[in-house]
Design brief:
With 310 residues, the protein is α/β, with parallel strands linked by helices. It is 42% helix and 18% strand. The strands form 2 sheets. Strands 2-1-3-10-4-11 form a 6-stranded mixed β-sheet, sandwiched between helices. Strands 7-6-8-5-9 form a 5-stranded mixed β-sheet, sandwiched between helices. α4 packs across α11 and α6 (150-162) crosses α11. It starts with a helix and ends in a 5-residue tail after the last helix.
Length: 310
């Protein structure tokens, strides 16, 4: 913690140099692309560059640990997405406490989750997939972005709800998940909309369903899983902005102010929409509720899938 006098002085002068925004995922992933759009606008409003630093690995834990231990001076941020909350249950020792080690500023965006297959698979509908899985239990396989990631737990929740089984094939991130389905190495997967949409739009992936409460406006002809008889699989991916715990109130308030302003910008909204992300700003208190809910949901999915912490 900074001494109070020093903290007040630092807040008055902030920012006097570039800000580092840690994205705990690989370059080119959905979170990275969205963060870069926001970083450019934030830099203009703050008068200092906001520089993206990718720290992928361990389902986001490596980057989260780095920011949890960073100086609480406003010069280190983290793109805090759903896995950061899930990992406190998925890993015995993630290296951070998602509630105590961060000052959560706001949720920024949400993105639907799609169940996708390769068009060459011959699977045309969700019912086709379910029928095929029941005819050969465990023979179908699915890709995830890694053990314990939402793309893993989400499929396990779907399998339980549909009363079918399939074999899990973990990959290193959402992009590799999509590539595995594209290449026919696996039967299906459940990536976030932002990662899958370009391939669905190009006809290289077929979306069988949306794992949400309503259809996505960009794919109005794709029904939800619930509409097709598979209930209880309501998943939404989200991303937000957090700071190290102990960051002064004035700095946190300034960051919140800047991003609240940015997320009303029609150009920013349009750019994020093209990635399949919806602008979904929250208050700091609202963001804490989102994170708590994600931890609870992860616990439910782990229990359903009989997954033990790593």
């Amino acid at each position: 913690m900074l001494p109070l006098a020093n903290a007040a002085k630092a807040a008055d002068q902030w920012p006097s140099r570039p800000v580092k925004w840690v994205v705990p995922y690989l370059a080119g992933t959905g979170p990275d692309t969205g963060a870069r759009i926001l970083a450019e606008s934030a830099g203009r409003l703050l008068g200092q560059p906001v520089i993206i630093e990718n720290k992928g690995g361990a389902a986001g834990n490596i980057g989260a640990r780095q920011v949890a231990r960073a100086a609480p001076d406003g010069y280190t941020w983290i793109y805090s997405a759903a896995p950061m909350a899930a990992n406190v249950l998925m890993y015995r020792s993630p290296g951070y406490d998602v509630m105590k080690d961060f000052r959560h500023v706001m949720r920024l965006t949400t993105s639907d989750v799609l169940l996708v297959v390769n068009p060459a698979s011959g699977i045309e509908t969700l019912q086709d997939l379910v029928t095929k899985a029941r005819a050969a239990p465990g023979k179908l396989d699915y890709a995830s972005g890694g053990v314990g990631t939402p793309s893993h737990l989400g499929v396990e929740l779907f399998l339980n709800a549909a009363d079918i089984s399939a074999t899990h094939v973990p990959y290193k991130g959402a992009s590799e998940l999509v590539n595995a389905v594209l290449g026919g190495q696996v039967s299906f997967g459940m990536p976030i909309f932002a990662v899958a949409f370009p391939q669905v739009k190009a006809g290289k992936l077929k979306a069988l369903g949306v794992a949400g409460t309503r259809r996505n406006a960009s794919l109005p002809d794709v029904p939800t899983l619930a509409e097709q008889g598979v209930q209880g699989v309501q998943l939404t991916s989200w991303g937000g902005l957090s700071l190290p715990a102990g960051t002064p109130d004035a700095i946190a308030a300034r960051v919140y102010e800047v991003f609240s302003q940015m997320l009303k910008d029609p150009q920013v909204i349009a750019s994020l929409s093209e990635l399949g992300s919806q602008v979904s700003p929250s208050t700091p208190e609202g963001y804490l509720q989102v994170i708590r809910h994600e931890v609870e949901l992860t616990g439910q999915m782990m229990k359903s899938a009989k997954i033990s912490p790593l």
